[in-house]
Protein backbone atom coordinates (compact mmCIF):
# COMPACT_ATOMS: atom_id res chain seq x y z
CA UNK A 1 0.00 0.00 0.00
CA UNK A 2 1.43 3.37 -1.01
CA UNK A 3 1.67 6.46 1.15
CA UNK A 4 -0.97 8.07 -1.07
CA UNK A 5 -3.36 5.16 -0.36
CA UNK A 6 -2.76 5.57 3.38
CA UNK A 7 -3.45 9.31 3.16
CA UNK A 8 -6.65 8.70 1.20
CA UNK A 9 -7.81 6.13 3.75
CA UNK A 10 -7.08 8.57 6.58
CA UNK A 11 -9.02 11.36 4.90
CA UNK A 12 -11.93 9.00 4.27
CA UNK A 13 -11.93 7.94 7.92
CA UNK A 14 -11.96 11.55 9.10
CA UNK A 15 -14.85 12.30 6.72
CA UNK A 16 -16.84 9.41 8.22
CA UNK A 17 -16.31 10.72 11.77
CA UNK A 18 -17.18 14.28 10.73
CA UNK A 19 -20.32 12.97 9.03
CA UNK A 20 -21.47 11.47 12.32
CA UNK A 21 -21.49 14.95 13.82
CA UNK A 22 -23.55 16.44 11.00
CA UNK A 23 -26.88 17.87 12.18
CA UNK A 24 -26.18 16.47 15.64
CA UNK A 25 -26.29 18.60 18.77
CA UNK A 26 -23.45 16.50 20.19
CA UNK A 27 -20.42 18.78 20.41
CA UNK A 28 -22.01 21.46 18.20
CA UNK A 29 -21.08 24.98 19.23
CA UNK A 30 -23.48 26.96 17.05
CA UNK A 31 -26.86 26.50 15.40
CA UNK A 32 -28.12 28.25 12.29
CA UNK A 33 -31.80 29.16 12.17
CA UNK A 34 -33.07 29.04 8.60
CA UNK A 35 -36.80 29.62 8.22
CA UNK A 36 -38.36 26.96 10.46
CA UNK A 37 -35.25 24.79 10.79
CA UNK A 38 -32.59 24.71 13.49
CA UNK A 39 -29.34 23.36 12.06
CA UNK A 40 -26.65 22.47 14.63
CA UNK A 41 -23.14 23.07 13.32
CA UNK A 42 -19.48 23.39 14.17
CA UNK A 43 -17.92 26.84 13.88
CA UNK A 44 -14.54 25.52 12.83
CA UNK A 45 -15.93 23.46 9.95
CA UNK A 46 -18.22 26.20 8.63
CA UNK A 47 -15.53 28.88 8.96
CA UNK A 48 -13.00 26.72 7.13
CA UNK A 49 -15.40 26.39 4.19
CA UNK A 50 -16.28 30.05 3.72
CA UNK A 51 -14.69 33.44 4.33
CA UNK A 52 -18.11 35.01 4.98
CA UNK A 53 -18.83 32.59 7.84
CA UNK A 54 -15.24 32.84 9.12
CA UNK A 55 -15.72 36.59 9.51
CA UNK A 56 -19.15 36.08 11.08
CA UNK A 57 -18.09 33.40 13.55
CA UNK A 58 -14.55 34.50 14.46
CA UNK A 59 -14.48 38.21 13.64
CA UNK A 60 -15.92 41.27 15.33
CA UNK A 61 -19.50 40.65 14.22
CA UNK A 62 -22.19 40.27 16.90
CA UNK A 63 -22.84 36.70 15.71
CA UNK A 64 -19.40 35.61 16.93
CA UNK A 65 -20.79 35.67 20.48
CA UNK A 66 -24.09 33.95 19.72
CA UNK A 67 -24.98 30.28 20.00
CA UNK A 68 -27.90 30.56 17.58
CA UNK A 69 -27.67 32.64 14.42
CA UNK A 70 -30.62 33.57 12.23
CA UNK A 71 -29.69 33.41 8.52
CA UNK A 72 -31.58 35.34 5.89
CA UNK A 73 -31.07 36.32 2.28
CA UNK A 74 -28.01 35.07 0.40
CA UNK A 75 -26.36 33.53 3.45
CA UNK A 76 -29.34 31.21 3.89
CA UNK A 77 -29.50 30.19 0.24
CA UNK A 78 -27.21 27.18 0.37
CA UNK A 79 -28.87 25.82 3.46
CA UNK A 80 -32.26 25.53 1.74
CA UNK A 81 -31.14 23.13 -0.98
CA UNK A 82 -28.71 21.00 0.98
CA UNK A 83 -27.57 21.89 4.51
CA UNK A 84 -24.68 19.41 4.20
CA UNK A 85 -22.91 21.79 1.84
CA UNK A 86 -21.97 24.60 4.24
CA UNK A 87 -22.03 22.54 7.42
CA UNK A 88 -20.03 19.53 6.32
CA UNK A 89 -18.35 20.61 3.12
CA UNK A 90 -19.98 18.20 0.71
CA UNK A 91 -20.29 20.19 -2.48
CA UNK A 92 -19.26 19.98 -6.07
CA UNK A 93 -16.97 22.72 -7.31
CA UNK A 94 -19.89 24.23 -9.23
CA UNK A 95 -21.96 24.86 -6.09
CA UNK A 96 -21.55 28.33 -4.65
CA UNK A 97 -23.44 28.50 -1.37
CA UNK A 98 -21.09 30.97 0.24
CA UNK A 99 -22.78 34.34 -0.32
Structural description of this entry:
With 99 residues, this protein is of the alpha+beta class. The protein has a single domain (3-88), classed as 2-Layer Sandwich (Potassium Channel Kv1.1, Chain A), CATH 3.30.710. 47% of the residues lie in helices and 13% in strands. The chain is built from 5 helices and 3 strands; from the N terminus they run αββααβαα. It has helices spanning 3-21, 43-49, 51-58, 74-81, 84-88; strands spanning 30-34, 37-41, 68-70. Strands 2-1-3 form a 3-stranded mixed beta sheet. α2 (43-49) packs antiparallel against α3 (51-58). The longest helix is centred in the N-terminal third of the chain and has 19 residues, at 3-21. Mean pLDDT is 76; it is low at 91-95.
Write a compact overview of the structure shown.
The protein has a single domain, classed as Potassium Channel Kv1.1, Chain A. Helices cover 47% and strands 13% of the residues. It has helices at residues 3-21, 43-49, 51-58, 74-81, 84-88, and strands at residues 30-34, 37-41, 68-70.
Biggest pleated-sheet summary: 3 strands, mixed
CATH superfamily: Potassium Channel Kv1.1, Chain A
Number of domains: 1
CATH class: Alpha Beta
**What's the total number of strands?**
3
How far apart, in Å, are the first and last alpha carbons? 41 Å
Mean pLDDT over the full residue set: 76
pLDDT < 50 runs, ≥5 residues: 91-95
Strands ordered across the widest β-sheet: 2-1-3
Oligomer: single chain
- Structural class comes to alpha+beta
Helix-strand pattern: HEEHHEHH
Please render the helix and strand layout as text.
Elements: H1 3-21, E1 30-34, E2 37-41, H2 43-49, H3 51-58, E3 68-70, H4 74-81, H5 84-88
Helix pairs in contact: 2-3
Amino acid sequence: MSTQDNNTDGIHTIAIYMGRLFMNDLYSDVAFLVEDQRLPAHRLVVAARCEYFRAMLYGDMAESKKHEIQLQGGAAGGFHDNPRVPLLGQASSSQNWCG
